[in-house]
């Protein structure tokens, strides 16, 4: 039997080289050993891998002799029958053995198809030593990233804007323009965080005042005439001019709410507007608004006009308070209609202090009178209630003039006509049979002095009995009388109402343009600001002036004219409000809120003297 | 970081000559380092002196200035990709441009950080900032790689070209193949596994670390050594030859792998630097549009 074995190989240029050998044998062997008829220099092939033998009818039988398989037409097998005329393809490792027949002789064509080693394979050598193939190419990655960023961070939020334009309240959950949030909203506006369109109404249009005013209908009071505000502004500095350039370029109107009330500056309270926003106009207001009556104010510590309290100058025809604003530098007096020396009442010794001691148990006084014994704070602790005669003076200054059984009859305070009528009635109806002080006729004084006068009073009373009523009326309204000593009394010449008492007026605030909160000053004593202990007349204006406040309060950045031991930095907003209303300014409100949970006003007896 | 890169360059011991052979880091006596440092210092000083109320932010006038300068710088820095394709000498040479790219890129850290006013959050604005910082950090890595690795690379190459390395591997493989012919299949398999493993087929991590724990050549050599250990050295055992060849291949592979590692380190940062630059440009665009869309 004859086999033809053809060894195919290729030159470097790819030209084919064919070596043909005839083998005369019944069977030929295939393997790596050089002794094999078909020698395959292939490490994946056994030394003696398989044999090919002839069978009846020209059939060839291929059989593995080492127990390792080979492939026939792609299938792995240990043994196979092949008709050479039909042909087949065997594969041993990296070699292919084609079987065919030429003129009845079986031809085995051997060719190396697998590379000898990985390194020996011809490959593109440029890029072999680079990261090419290990990492995705830079260009497609760059394009992909550009697309992803623009889609997620630009197109999606714009889509959200477009679909929620004009919607009052969006549904709960995530909205893509959230990704544009430049910082958390303040506490007041926290609820708007999912509703960007509530303020950002139109695209590329800076937040308009109209958006603010949809909620702030009642509290956004105008500060001044916008035309005058525009006039009052300082010419812009270099920074403001640069910002102005951007603002004009991007349709950014000036003078809007958000100029001062900046948002997205962090969670927590919206920060108080900086002093600069005030002083931009008020620091040198007079140079631009020449007709203004306001004085320039640049900083509390260094550049603030003297306070001008509204002092009482009298009353009008209806008893209303007439006042005039007078600077402290002009030594104002407060003509409130009362005669009251604070110094005597607060003295630590003397008759008043002694009387206070005797009334300790009854009225809760100390060893001498203190401010709190007569002055009561308002419910919020910010100010003090007006003094009321019955409540605040009457515990000592009784208006009793008669006693029926255990009950005292008193003159009616605040109603001179009634006083006259009561006294006249008294002298008509009763006799001078009481061995006690007549009271009422004269102002009762503390201590034994009053008791020692009882006898004299009685004699006078007895003398006046029955027909001396007019003398009694006259005594009450004259020097030494119950009314006269505290009030300004003028005779009228009218028989029915012979005397007129001037109405006492007590303002609830002397300084309406600035805010003052007693509550915030609880750690101070009263007299550290109000020099009541040395005041001998009720006309003394017992208010602290600018210098007095400056002993603690310094400017926004700590600016001051004199050394201050425990400085309290005070910007304009501490006392003044841009949107002026009756309430406390923003900054003061925030300071008081911090003390919530504590009693609002605690008169510490030791300190409030 | 600005001062570190040039220090490395100086450590290389190069002496400044006429300037023509200075690296881009030393270009024109560190001209652009000085410019970048002055710009950064001025930005910091201004930040400290300008009292922005209620707190520093990108929307103040100074914020706008820093933002404009920063955005302009980013666009200009990106243009290096175009500029590098045109080489010219002189004051506006590519080297000067690259030097400026490095130092002005570093000053961008200061400018952009001050522009943020240190307000960060989960938003497109911080995204742009973070992308920018990644781009700059990868750039710093790249500059330090360029300053140090070429020296190590030429030490490792030992004057061999890449083609020579490849050819050397192939020669060893051919000899291994021939020498393994008489071996029985089990031993032949060891050699074959070494031949068939792609020397360039390691993962990215293997490239960067130079660690190839699944190296077949090393495994084959260990097995062959174990088999040879107790045999007398007669000089006619094909396994002895195989042993020698495998040792040579492993040494060659070690050199190739060190080379691959150094090259990968020289290259890897660009795979971060370039795509992230474009992501940054997109985020910057979204940042600017969003700020003016809602403001």
Concise description?
With 609 residues, chain A is of the alpha+beta class. Chain A has helices at 138-164, 209-213, 226-232, 238-249, 257-260, 276-282, 285-288, 342-346, 351-358, 360-363, 371-374, 389-393, 416-429, 448-452, 454-464, 469-476, 546-549, 586-593; strands at residues 2-10, 16-24, 27-31, 38-39, 50-54, 60-64, 70-72, 75-77, 79-82, 88-92, 95-102, 105-112, 310-315, 321-325, 400-404, 407-410, 489-491, 499-501, 553-554, 568-569. With 295 residues, chain B is mostly helical.
Describe it for me?
The complex is a heterodimer of chains A (609) and B (295). By secondary structure, chain A is an alpha+beta fold. Chain A has 18 helices and 20 strands. In chain A, strand 11 and strand 12 form a beta hairpin. In chain A, helix 13 packs antiparallel against helix 16. Chain A is rod-shaped, with a radius of gyration of 55 Å. The C terminus of chain A is likely disordered. Chain B is built from eleven helices and no strands. In chain B, helix 3 packs antiparallel against helix 5. Classes of the chains: A alpha+beta (609), B mainly alpha (295). The interface between A and B is large, with 68 and 75 residues.
Mean pLDDT of chain B: 87
Number of strands of chain B: 0
Overall, the morphology of chain A is rod-shaped
> What is the share of helical residues of chain A?
10-25%
Radius of gyration of chain A: 55 Å
The spatial strand order of the largest sheet of chain A comes to: 2-1-12-11-10-7-8
Task: Please write the string of helix (H) and strand (E) elements of chain B.
Answer: HHHHHHHHHHH
Main sheet record of chain B = none
Secondary structure topology:
The complex is a heterodimer of chains A (609) and B (295).
Chain A: E1 2-10, E2 16-24, E3 27-31, E4 38-39, E5 50-54, E6 60-64, E7 70-72, E8 75-77, E9 79-82, E10 88-92, E11 95-102, E12 105-112, H1 138-164, H2 209-213, H3 226-232, H4 238-249, H5 257-260, H6 276-282, H7 285-288, E13 310-315, E14 321-325, H8 342-346, H9 351-358, H10 360-363, H11 371-374, H12 389-393, E15 400-404, E16 407-410, H13 416-429, H14 448-452, H15 454-464, H16 469-476, E17 489-491, E18 499-501, H17 546-549, E19 553-554, E20 568-569, H18 586-593
Parallel strand pairs in A: 1-12, 3-4, 19-20
Antiparallel strand pairs in A: 1-2, 3-5, 5-6, 6-9, 7-8, 7-10, 10-11, 11-12, 13-14, 15-16, 17-18
Helix pairs in contact in A: 13-16
Chain B: H1 4-11, H2 27-49, H3 61-78, H4 80-83, H5 94-116, H6 124-157, H7 162-179, H8 185-196, H9 204-209, H10 216-229, H11 238-293
Helix pairs in contact in B: 2-5, 3-5, 3-11, 5-6, 6-11, 7-11, 8-10, 10-11
């Amino acid at each position: 039997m004859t086999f033809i074995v053809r060894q195919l190989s290729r030159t470097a240029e790819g030209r084919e080289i064919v070596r043909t050998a005839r083998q005369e044998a019944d069977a030929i062997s295939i393997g790596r050993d050089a002794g094999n008829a078909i020698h395959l220099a292939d490490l994946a092939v056994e030394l003696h891998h398989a044999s090919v033998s002839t069978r009846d009818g020209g059939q060839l039988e291929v059989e593995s002799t080492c127990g390792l398989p080979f492939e026939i037409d792609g299938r792995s097998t240990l043994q196979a029958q092949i008709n050479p005329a039909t042909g087949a393809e065997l594969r041993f490792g990296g070699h292919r053995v084609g079987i065919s027949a030429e003129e009845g002789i079986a031809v085995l064509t051997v060719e190396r198809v697998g590379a000898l080693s990985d390194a020996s394979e011809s490959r593109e050598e440029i890029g072999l030593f680079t990261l090419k193939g290990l990492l995705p190419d830079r260009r497609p990655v760059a394009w992909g990233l550009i697309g992803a960023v623009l889609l997620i961070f630009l197109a999606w939020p714009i889509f959200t804007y477009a679909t929620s334009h004009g919607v009052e309240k969006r549904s709960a959950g995530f909205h893509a323009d959230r990704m544009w949030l430049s910082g958390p909203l303040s506490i007041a506006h926290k609820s708007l965080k999912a509703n960007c369109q509530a303020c950002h109404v139109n695209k590329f249009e800076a937040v308009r005042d109209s958006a603010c005013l949809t909620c702030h209908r009642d509290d956004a009071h105008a500060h001044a005439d916008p035309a005058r505000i525009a006039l009052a502004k300082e010419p812009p500095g270099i920074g403001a001019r640069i910002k102005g350039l951007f603002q004009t370029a991007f349709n950014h109107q000036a003078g809007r709410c958000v100029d001062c009330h900046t948002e997205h500056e962090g969670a927590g309270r919206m920060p108080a507007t900086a002093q600069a926003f005030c002083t931009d106009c008020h620091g040198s207001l007079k140079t631009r608004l020449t007709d203004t009556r306001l004085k320039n104010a640049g900083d509390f510590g260094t550049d603030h006009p003297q306070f001008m309290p509204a002092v009482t100058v009298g009353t009008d025809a209806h008893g209303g308070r007439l006042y005039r604003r007078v600077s402290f530098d002009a030594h104002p007096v407060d003509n409130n209609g009362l005669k009251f020396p604070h110094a005597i009442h607060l003295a630590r010794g003397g008759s008043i202090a002694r009387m206070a001691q005797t009334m300790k148990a009854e009225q809760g006084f100390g060893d001498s009178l203190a401010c709190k014994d007569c002055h009561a704070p308002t419910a919020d602790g910010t100010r003090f209630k007006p003094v009321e005669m019955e409540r605040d003076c009457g515990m000592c200054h009784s208006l009793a003039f008669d006693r029926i059984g255990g009950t005292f009859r008193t003159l009616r305070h605040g109603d001179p006509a009634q006083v006259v009528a009561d006294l006249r009635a008294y002298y008509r109806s009763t006799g001078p049979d009481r061995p006690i002080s007549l009271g009422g006729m004269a102002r009762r004084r503390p201590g034994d002095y009053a008791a020692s006068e009882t006898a004299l009073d009685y004699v006078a009373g007895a003398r006046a009995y029955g027909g001396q009523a007019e003398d009694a009326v006259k005594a009450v309204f004259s020097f030494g009388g119950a009314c006269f000593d505290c009030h300004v009394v003028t005779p009228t010449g009218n028989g029915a109402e012979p005397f007129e008492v001037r109405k006492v007026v007590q303002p609830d605030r002397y300084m309406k343009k600035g805010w003052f909160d007693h509550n915030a000053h609880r750690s101070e004593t009263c007299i550290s600001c109000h020099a009541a202990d040395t005041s001998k007349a009720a006309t003394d204006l017992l208010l602290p002036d600018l210098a007095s406040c400056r002993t603690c309060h310094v400017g926004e950045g700590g600016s001051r004219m004199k050394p201050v031991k425990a400085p309290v930095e005070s910007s304009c907003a501490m006392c003044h409000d841009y949107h002026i209303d009756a309430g406390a300014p923003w900054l003061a409100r925030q300071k008081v809120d911090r003390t919530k949970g504590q009693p609002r006003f605690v008169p510490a007896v030791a300190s409030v003297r | 970081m600005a001062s570190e890169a040039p220090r490395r360059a100086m450590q290389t011991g190069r002496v400044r000559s006429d300037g023509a052979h200075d690296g881009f880091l030393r270009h024109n006596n560190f001209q652009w380092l000085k410019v970048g440092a002055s710009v950064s210092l001025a930005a910091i000083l201004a930040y400290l002196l300008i009292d922005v109320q209620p707190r520093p932010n990108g929307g103040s006038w100074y914020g706008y200035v820093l933002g404009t300068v920063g955005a302009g710088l980013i666009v200009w820095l990106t243009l290096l990709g175009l500029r590098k394709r045109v080489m010219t000498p002189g004051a506006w040479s590519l080297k000067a441009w690259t030097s400026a790219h490095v130092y002005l890129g570093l000053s961008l850290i200061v400018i952009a950080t001050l522009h943020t006013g240190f307000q960060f959050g989960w938003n497109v604005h911080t995204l742009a900032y973070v992308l920018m910082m990644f781009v700059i950090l990868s750039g710093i890595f790249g500059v330090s790689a360029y300053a140090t690795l070429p020296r190590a690379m030429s030490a490792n190459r030992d004057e061999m070209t890449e083609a020579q390395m490849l050819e050397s591997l192939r020669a060893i493989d051919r000899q291994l193949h021939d020498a393994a012919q008489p071996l029985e299949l089990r031993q032949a398999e060891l050699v074959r596994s070494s031949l068939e493993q792609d020397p360039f087929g390691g993962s990215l991590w293997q490239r960067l670390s130079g660690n190839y724990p699944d190296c077949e050549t090393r495994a084959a050599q260990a097995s062959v050594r174990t088999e040879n250990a107790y045999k007398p050295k007669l000089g006619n055992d094909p396994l002895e030859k195989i042993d020698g060849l495998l040792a040579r291949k492993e040494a060659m592979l070690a050199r190739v792998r060190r080379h691959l590692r150094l090259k990968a380190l020289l290259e890897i940062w660009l795979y971060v630097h370039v795509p992230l630059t474009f992501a940054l440009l997109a985020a910057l665009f979204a940042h600017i549009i969003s700020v003016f869309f809602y403001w």
